[in-house]
Design a protein that fits this description.
This is rRNA biogenesis protein rrp5. This protein folds into 2 domains: about 1-30; about 35-80, no CATH class. It is built from 4 helices and no strands. It has helices at about 5-25, 35-45, 50-60, 75-80. It is elongated.
Length: about 80
C-alpha cells in the first residue's frame, strides 16, 4: 500500500471514530461561534447582501453581530449561510 493510501485510511478511521463517539453521545456536535458567523457575513457582504444582513440582525434584536445573543448563534449562522 502506498503512503497516500495509508494516510487516507488513517484519516477515514479517525472520522469513523468521531462519528461513533457522536452516536454514543460522548461528544457534542460542533456549535457555531461568533468567528464562524463573522466569516459568513463577510462573504455575504462581498456579494452585496448588506440589506439582507441588516434585516437578519434586526430579526435577532441586534444592529451589530456582537449584540446577537449566544443562544441564537446556531440559528443565526444557519440563516446567514442561506442569504
Amino acid at each position: 500500500m502506498s503512503d497516500l493510501h495509508y494516510a487516507l485510511a488513517e484519516e477515514l478511521e479517525k472520522l469513523a471514530a468521531g462519528y461513533r463517539a457522536l452516536a454514543r453521545g460522548e461528544v457534542k456536535p460542533y456549535e457555531a461561534n461568533i468567528q464562524d458567523i463573522s466569516i459568513v457575513l463577510t462573504e455575504k457582504i462581498k456579494k452585496g447582501k448588506v440589506s439582507e444582513i441588516k434585516a437578519l440582525l434586526k430579526k435577532y434584536g441586534a444592529t451589530k453581530l456582537v449584540e446577537v445573543k449566544k443562544k441564537d448563534y446556531e440559528a443565526f449562522y444557519k440563516e446567514a449561510k442561506h442569504l
